[in-house]
Amino acid sequence: MYKIVKKKVLNDQVVLMEIDAPFIAKKAEAGQFIIYRIDEKGERVPLTIADYDREKGTITIIFQTIGGSTKALAALNEGDSILDVAGPLGVATKYEENCKRVAVIGGGVGCAIAYPQAKKLHGMGVHVDLIAGFRNKDIMILEDEMKAVSTDLHICTDDGSYGFHGFVTDKLKELIDSGVKYDEVIAIGPVPMMKFVCKTTEPYGIKTTVSLNPIMVDGTGMCGGCRVTVDGQIKYACVDGPDFDGHKVDFDELMRRNGTYKEHESKHICRLTGGVR
């Protein structure tokens, strides 16, 4: 059993939890994830490790309450326990040697994954431009935390209600065109956002790493559900990733695969909740 030692509601749909998991905290690195199961009848759900504290023996997860499993997790409180937490899974992010300046881009809840990337780089002495995008100010998360682990924080909102009025790609292009030289760009968020970040950086020849989120079941490479095409080859996000060279990812195929079950989901009666989705 894994005890919840801290719970914080970040907005109406996003929750932060710190979980007592000393063996995972001991090995966790930026870019890796866990798979949790809330109880014996629960489904396996992958979540990126948003932070870890080796001394306390805890890991932090940040998740959006969408389906039955995440809603059930969000209903738990400090002192409650989760049955299974497996990890750390996936390959830790590899950073360029001697890199001086990196743009880390997060979209929406993807900022929970961008945060540990920025924290790691910032701790290495790298100049980090953290570009965080949200639909509006009301759903913004982790502003103070992101500010603490970046050299320059750029908040973007689609509606202009806070920070820069526009998409993260608009801000990224503005910075590049102003003369900023990036050794690498790291993008994490909705697949269309990552696709267009890569289209933005490609003409400039800037290395761009993306963290992919295909449908995943077991997290060990056995089910094949998380396969993606990278540079014309089949890769599995759970064991080969989740980080990949964004200029080599077939994003259109990934979007089609992620949408495979949308029609079924709209009619499916969830065994956990008894309702649709």
Structural account:
By secondary structure, the protein is of the alpha/beta class. The protein has 2 domains: 2-89, Beta Barrel (Elongation Factor Tu (Ef-tu), domain 3); 101-258, Nucleotide-binding domain of ferredoxin-NADP reductase (FNR) module (Rossmann fold, 3-Layer(aba) Sandwich). It is built from 9 helices and 16 strands. It has helices at residues 22-27, 68-74, 111-123, 143-148, 168-177, 191-201, 237-240, 251-258, 262-265; strands spanning 2-9, 14-20, 33-37, 45-53, 58-64, 81-82, 84-89, 101-107, 127-134, 152-157, 164-165, 184-188, 208-211, 227-230, 233-236, 243-245. The strands form 3 sheets. Strands 6-1-2-5-4-3-7 form a 7-stranded antiparallel sheet. Strand 14 (227-230) and strand 15 form a beta hairpin. Helix 5 packs parallel to helix 6. It is globular and about 55 Å long. The model has no long low-confidence stretch (mean pLDDT 92).
